[in-house]
Specification:
Keywords: Repeat, Secreted, Signal. By secondary structure, the protein is α+β, with helices and mostly antiparallel strands. It contains one helix and four strands. It has one helix at 29-47; strands at 2-8, 16-23, 53-56, 60-65. The protein starts with a strand and ends in a 7-residue tail after the last strand.
Length: 72
């Protein structure tokens, strides 16, 4: 599974956040969601207040930045 997107931060006139989530092919949809939910829980400890960040495991990863990093 792979997904990428972008959104404007509320209350911000300049910031767009770009994000990406990915799981390995061996994970079911449910296991992928569980893996990504766990990574999202790790974001406050690694990336709080940062302009970009990523959390990577062997089965799934998520990333966000304030610049586009995924080629369409």
């Amino acid at each position: 599974m792979y997904a990428a997107g972008e959104f404007k931060l509320e209350g911000s006139e300049k910031e767009t956040v770009y994000g990406m989530a990915q799981c390995t092919r061996d994970l079911s949809d449910g296991d992928c969601k569980t893996c990504l939910d766990g990574l999202i829980g790790d974001f406050p400890s690694c990336c709080d207040g940062k302009q970009g960040g990523r959390v990577v495991t062997g089965s799934c990863n998520i990333r966000y930045e304030i610049y586009p990093f995924v080629k369409a």
